[in-house]
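Session log. Operator J.P. requested a structure for one protein chain; no other inputs attached. Running the standard single-chain path with token output.
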Amino acid sequence: MDLLVTLFLFLNTLFAFLLPFCSSADLSGTVAFASVGRAHYAFDIYSLPIKYKSPNTFEFSGLEEVRSTDGVSVNFNGQFLDVPAIDALAAKLNINTTTQPVLNALAYVSERDGLADIYLDIYFSAAPILSQKISGDGNGRREILESHKDYLTVKFGDLVGSKEEVLSMKDRPSMKGDRMVFVSTAIPAQKSRNSWAAVYCTNLRTGRTKRLTPRGRGIADLSPALSPSGELVAVASTGEGGWEGQIRDLETDLYVFRASDGFERRLVAKHGGWPCWADDDTLFFHRQAEDGWWSVYRVSLSFAEIERITPPGIHAFTPAAAPLGGASWIVVATRRPDSEYRHIEIFDLVKKEFVELSKLVDANSHHYNPFVSGDRIGYHRCRGGERGLIPVLEHIRSPAALPNLSVFRVDGTFPSFSPDGSMIAYIPNIEYSGVYVMNLDGSGSRKIFSGSAFGTAWDWKRAVIYTSYGPGFSSEKTTVDIVAIYNADKEDGSEVFHKTLTKIDNNAFPSPSPDGRFVVFRSGRSRHKNLYIMDAAQGEEGGLWRLTEGPWTDTMCNWSPDGDWIAFASDRQHPGSGSFAMYFVHPNGTGLHMVLNSSTAGRVNHPWFSPDSKSLVFTSDYAGVSAEPISVPHQFQPYGEIFMARVDGSGLQRLTHNSYEDGTPSWGRVFLDPNHLAGEGNKVKCDFDDDTWLQMNSGLPIGSVKC
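Structure written below.
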């Protein structure tokens, strides 16, 4: 079966390259979806000075934290450039450094254009950074942009001339001299559930980009790092075995190869990630040890000796080595057992001791992915509510060439469009409480239902929104009701009220028929979660019919606008495994068949029909993961990406490229021009979780959860 699935996906990918996905008339309107936590990140790059009392003893009085990015979108995974790289960048931009001295330059990832891309900030100044002390309580900070108004921001793709093969997500830039290496997800893997992540190298002077990750062997490379000489690249690689569904420790291996062409690829350490170089022979990396603690290790390329550096009792990961020759310390991110936050700490390689750093400046913020450059230690963290809004709708730039289809991330979950496409219902990210509606442009958000809810769907004939009222991810006998909310689109003072349509057990994911007479939903009333149809106006009292039956979970159903099919996700191939495929069934119970299956262990969830009933949008793990999960805030399912396909399963197309869990998509009939967004939203609250499994020292796998 896996061979057939692989062949099917390969032919679909080939077909997508050779022919247009569909006519632009077929793919029109707006797709909206949710990302776990992403709307609340508001990351910027910050740094702290390295102050010495003696060569290996640090001074922490009057720490000066500098914000180096501009507060637009999210900015993360930074690196200050060394002098040769700054010179190469200045030459590419025709900057005369004699008359216009470059103080510093920063490479980082930003999502400001709706897709993760690499940006370069060049700061001009003839004077060094002025010293300004701040208090240790985190209430005072200085921003590099306040004292350096003469700076230039350049998009890396524009600088070198964007190539087709690197148009999608770029991540973790590493630059030495005139070489920049990074991760891109542009080229599909030839097997389902294999990551699309591959490492590329761009020569800044020539603009030529070359893929370094081998093609066609199921290999995915992550977290690249250039050696100090710029001649070697180290990566965390899945190897030819591919991704096997891990969502904590990917169990990647460390490989090293030439930066010029990817040749002389060799394995240097089994089970390791996030490599960094101390010199061209020494690598530090992280892995989860057998005792359950994430720890940093060191390996010598010459002697292939692997040594555990950080002790158990504190999680330590995403290491960064000091670029100074002979330095006897590294920088790591940590999670201490007594802390709710991830912090940046120095680890003394001689004394075998941690030295706290970011906690001294801001104890109550998460700090991610440190880097060391010259006399500064950098990282990214959330900039806080004083800096801008979280937009309720954020435009996503997709590499897919779909001029008549717009894609938006919602600050919430379970968006759905009104039949005329003019409004969106959604569940806000405010304690996941209640149902809201807003105009298509993101304006006029208002609450129409209170209480814990999930899933939304509009009636096609009446001003009614259906939702599930009760706890999500609960057992078959937990009380969850289908609720109809009336006058949902009225702003004329009409009373909004609701009616409970179900009577017993766990009922969820309602979807109305296009004639407005019936609602299909998932129910656990038979001790298994199967599909049922009931009267839309009277609920169970008006009639109840069972649609599917079996000892498995059928869920996340959606009724096609033409009335012919009901799409749903099911684990019927392997009940209880957590693996879901997409199925179709006619409303009369005939014609049941599988449409899409990621693999035997894969997931295809939350299908939603296009307005013309010819295509679907859904979330899936087809593309594996795009980054090491430990390098981003907590994602329940970091493999989730938004895809679309025709109703026969052909023409598979990926819409999102990121390291987050994207899910609960829906499709409206009206095209929303990104230029017409209202720009409304909430203040940044930095309300997101670090990886919850870092609170424990257990390497046990996460169990499956039925939806």
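Operator note: The radius of gyration is 26 Å.
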